[in-house]
Specification:
The complex is a heterodimer of chains A (about 450) and B (about 400). By secondary structure, chain A is of the alpha+beta class. Chain A folds into two domains: about 290 residues, no CATH class; about 150 residues, Sandwich (Jelly Rolls). Helices cover about 60% and strands about 15% of the residues of chain A. Chain A has 15 helices and eleven strands. In chain A, helix 3 packs antiparallel against helix 5, helix 3 packs antiparallel against helix 11 and helix 12 runs antiparallel to helix 13. The longest helix of chain A is centred in the N-terminal third of the chain and has 37 residues. Chain B is of the alpha/beta class and about 400 residues long. In chain B, strands 5-6-7-3-8-9 form a six-stranded mixed beta sheet, sandwiched between helices. Chain B has a three-stranded antiparallel beta sheet with strand order 2-1-4, with helices on one face. In chain B, strand 8 and strand 9 form a beta hairpin. In chain B, helix 3 crosses helix 4 and helix 6 packs antiparallel against helix 14. Classes of the chains: A alpha+beta (about 450), B alpha/beta (about 400). At the A-B interface, helix 1 and helix 4 of A face helix 3 of B.
């Protein structure tokens, strides 16, 4: 372990001696402080949060992420090209220890910079919050400076239902002529619509089981977070509807008509103590518009409830960001394990850009090809070996990327939602151990087999 | 008179570590080693080493000699596990060069200063000490001794990037010795060093050999190799062109050189007459012994040091105590000590041959026999006399050479 720590310290020393740490710290803290000064908020709690928390944390993540990638490539590839690793590798240090030492050094550096910047963001948020109106400060306390749990309606497994309906419909001659995949998609949309679509004049009922938290939620408000799409555009741009909550015949049941815009999130509070005796919250929505509204199963309806303090939640959220940085460091080191410096950096950046193209990857996997598809069916006519191979690769890539992108700590913090310990542990497991471990294993393997003395050095 | 005769072979090779290694104690074994560098597509680009065989035995100072690009450094890097052989078999201490634990017994000075430029001398040695799992106390002690030895103790807070090339070689040498290695691999160790530094490095090699360390020296500088090596291989074009002890390679068995003090003319003439009669008049040569330029230079600098100050690296000092074995509770069974203590085996005749030389110049004979001061003055040879010194004497001599007086 001593060599690993020695190499980590060396990496850290290099970052300080080359002035990377002070310069980057100054830039980041400057950015964190200047951004809210340049972009004025609208005086609301949400506006303030958007700029002081969402934008600044986003900025820190982006800058530190790119720096980490660049630094990881530079520290290993640079040492190989400058032949310094020749002197290290002839000591009783395994190559994996060198690799791990570099990784550890970068992680410590990231922890330092991220901690410094995140601390600045936290303090600035607290300081700027004092300048809000009392009403907005109340909103901030209840909706942002809090860790809120999230509960959604439990949707049953729809596949058996879809398959059964599909089987019956396939007996119809017209329907049987459709390609099976298309037919199944149509049936699936119809089945899912029962849970998502609210027709004009109809009422949709959500029942959310909060029994587990009932005691903790006594006398605390709940929050509904909704998002919907409209089939036809309203002239006013908003859509009215009656929202009612509480047990159907109870005295504490509340109801109010709201007018909301489509295709964006809305959040509004519910008074405390609306759960029934079994701890179930019942919410009904009556569509008073002449058009159908569509609440997506994934994020159309959500109940938020108080779960913990903001400070701890903030720390967990920042730690998820740290997991991303750890992965980027592994990606950079893996690239530098077999490529020279600038090439390694561009390769790693390319991977990063690819990871943002999940939409394209998803399309390829769904269409079954990276070639042109049949415009009528949206599928490839006759998939060949190339389609199978490439789609398999894209499916694996998509699965891997989703493991990493399955977390939204900044969005969670901006909306006062809990980043639970479980989420953090899952992030660590998926991002650092699983995906980071894959890159580390690849990097160490290649680095171990690499001949280090082929570089002639710049000294 | 016979007792005053000084064998020239003694004078020129007394510094070489006198080892008689056993045949089965190979530290390095190389058999059929071939290294072909390939391009991106795997096509052969250059055959750097071609079917090379040799062994380096424990306690030897072994030289890899050859012009630039002859394959010396490639061989060294394969021995260190930095390059992998295309064909052939390499063992270091009985293991593959990539065996991690074996590397704890190896010290390596690369051909250039491949050190971290942002670390100072102390940090550099501390870092490498950590890689050998040395305790903080050991690292501190060894660093101090090594910095003192290589003459960098006064600039220990300056970063390596600010060092001159010579100073970088010195700190490079120090890091190679931080683990008190059993095998020291030195790739062009005197490159970039001034003559004093060169001498210091060569004396250090001798001191290491005297402790039973094995030294592999790769160099294209003939003087370096000649001064310290027991055995050499000569590379050219990636192949070994010659291999053997210096004596085997350099001796001219059909001629001898006799060195005597200034004698009266009549005695000299009598001796010459006998020699001419026996060997033939045109095959006898008479001249003054001369010291080499390195010895002369060191003498001048030594005298200048008494009155002049300098900046930068100072001359090195006494060899680090742990490298002399003084740190060990039970001194290692120093075979070198035994060798030094053992009476020297008489060499018969105690002279060696030299290349064919011109015939005697009569006028020169006259000048010599008159006892006039020869030119250059007859200073003692740079290398010690034939009698094998014991280890203390060797240390003392080394200390003096490394600047112990300053």
């Amino acid at each position: 372990m001593r060599p690993v720590v020695a190499i980590a310290r060396l990496t850290l020393k290099a970052a300080f001696r080359f002035r990377l740490v002070p310069v980057l710290a100054l830039l980041l803290i400057g950015g964190v402080l200047l951004l809210p000064a340049v972009i004025k908020d609208d005086g609301t709690a949400r506006g303030l949060t958007q700029i002081v928390l969402t934008y600044t944390l986003g900025l820190i993540t982006a800058v530190l992420g790119l720096t980490t990638l660049w630094l990881a490539c530079g520290t290993l590839a640079g040492d190989i090209e400058d032949c310094q690793l020749q002197v290290v590798a002839v000591k009783p240090v395994a190559r994996w220890q060198i690799w791990l030492g570099k990784w550890l050094g970068i992680l410590i550096l990231d922890a330092l910079l991220l901690g410094l910047c995140a601390g600045t963001v936290f303090l600035q948020l607290q300081w700027r919050a004092r300048h809000l109106s009392p009403a907005q400060q109340e909103v901030l306390r209840n909706e942002i400076f809090v860790a809120r749990g999230s509960a959604r309606e439990v949707i049953p497994d729809l596949d058996p239902v879809i398959d059964e309906i599909l089987k019956k419909r396939r007996e119809e001659p017209d329907f049987a002529r459709l390609p099976r995949a298309d037919a199944r998609r149509m049936v699936a949309d119809q089945v899912r619509a029962q849970y998502q679509v609210v027709l004009p004049g109809y009422t949709r009922i959500w029942r959310i089981n909060l029994a587990e938290h009932a005691a903790a939620l006594r006398d605390r408000p709940l929050y509904l977070r909704i998002k919907f799409f409209a089939v036809d555009r309203a002239l006013t741009g908003t859509y009215e509807g009656l929202w009612e909550a509480g047990p159907p015949s109870a005295s504490q049941r509340v109801g109010q008509v709201f007018s909301h815009a489509a295709e964006t999130f809305h959040e509004f509070p519910l008074p405390p103590n609306l759960l029934d005796t079994e701890g179930v919250l019942t919410v009904e929505y009556t569509n008073q518009n002449p058009t159908a509204l569509f609440f997506p199963i994934e994020d159309g309806f959500e109940v938020l409830y108080h779960q913990g303090s903001f400070a701890t939640n903030y720390m967990r959220g920042v730690l998820v960001v740290f997991c991303w940085l750890a992965l980027l460091a592994a990606v950079g080191l893996a690239a530098a394990s077999f490529l020279s410096f600038p090439v390694a950096a561009f390769f790693a950046l390319g991977l990063l850009i690819l990871s943002f193209s999940t939409g394209t990857m998803k399309n390829i996997v769904e269409q079954g090809t990276i070639r042109e598809v049949d415009h009528d069916t949206g599928m490839v006519a006759e998939p060949n070996w190339f389609d199978h191979t490439s789609v398999g690769a894209f499916r694996a890539a998509l699965w891997t990327v989703n493991l990493v992108r399955d977390f939204s700590p900044i969005e969670a913090l901006s909306t006062g939602r809990t980043v639970s310990w479980t989420t953090l542990a899952r992030a660590f497991g998926q991002i650092v151990v699983l995906v980071g471990g894959l890159f580390a294993a690849f990097g160490v393997l290649v680095f171990t087999r690499r001949e280090l003395a082929t570089a002639q050095g710049k000294v | 008179m016979g007792s005053e005769i000084i064998s020239s072979i003694d004078a020129t090779t007394a510094g070489v570590a006198p080892v008689s290694p056993a045949p089965n104690n190979a530290v390095i074994a190389v058999r059929g080693l071939t290294k072909v560098f390939k391009d991106f597509w795997g096509r052969p680009k250059a055959r750097a080493v071609d079917r090379v065989d040799f062994e380096v035995r424990r306690g030897e100072v072994f030289g890899l000699l050859g012009p630039n690009g002859s394959g010396k450094s490639t061989t060294v890097k394969i021995l260190l596990g930095l390059l992998y052989p295309t064909q052939g078999h390499v063992e270091v201490f009985g293991h593959s060069p990539r065996h991690v634990a074996t590397k704890a017994r190896i010290g390596y000075l690369p051909e250039e200063s491949y050190l971290y430029r942002y670390l100072d001398s102390g940090e550099t040695l501390d870092f490498f000490g950590n890689l050998f799992h040395l305790s903080p106390r050991e690292r501190r002690q060894r660093s101090e001794q090594l910095l003192e030895m290589v003459g960098l103790s006064q600039v220990r807070r300056r970063t390596v990037g600010e060092f001159s090339k010579g100073m970088q070689r010195r700190i490079g040498l120090a890091q190679a010795l931080i683990n008190d290695p059993d095998l020291v691999v030195l790739d062009e160790p005197t490159a970039g060093l001034d003559p004093i530094g060169c001498r210091e490095v060569k004396d250090l090699i001798l001191a290491l050999a005297a402790r039973g360390k094995t030294v592999l020296l790769s160099s294209h500088l003939l003087a370096d190799v000649e001064d310290v090596c027991n055995r050499v291989v000569i590379y050219y074009g990636g192949r070994i062109q010659a291999m053997g002890t210096l004596k085997e390679l350099l001796a001219t068995p059909d001629a001898i050189r006799i060195t005597v003090p200034i004698l009266p003319r009549d005695i000299l003439e009598r001796v010459l007459e006998i020699l001419r009669r026996e060997a033939g008049p045109d095959r006898v040569r008479l001249d003054n012994p001369t010291q080499n330029l390195e010895s002369y230079f060191l003498g001048v600098v030594e005298r200048a040091k008494q009155s002049e100050a300098t900046s930068g690296a100072t001359s090195g000092h006494r060899v680090a105590a742990y490298l002399r074995g003084e740190d060990q509770a039970v001194p290692s069974v120093d075979r070198a000590l035994e060798r030094f203590a053992r009476p020297a085996e008489p060499e018969s005749p105690r002279v060696t041959t030299a290349p064919r030389e011109p015939a005697v110049d009569e006028s020169r004979l006259a000048a010599l026999s008159q006892g006039g001061p020869p030119s250059p003055p007859p200073t003692p040879p740079a290398t010690p006399a034939a009698a094998p010194p014991n280890l203390d004497q060797a240390d003392q001599r080394l200390t003096d050479l490394l600047g112990g007086k300053s």
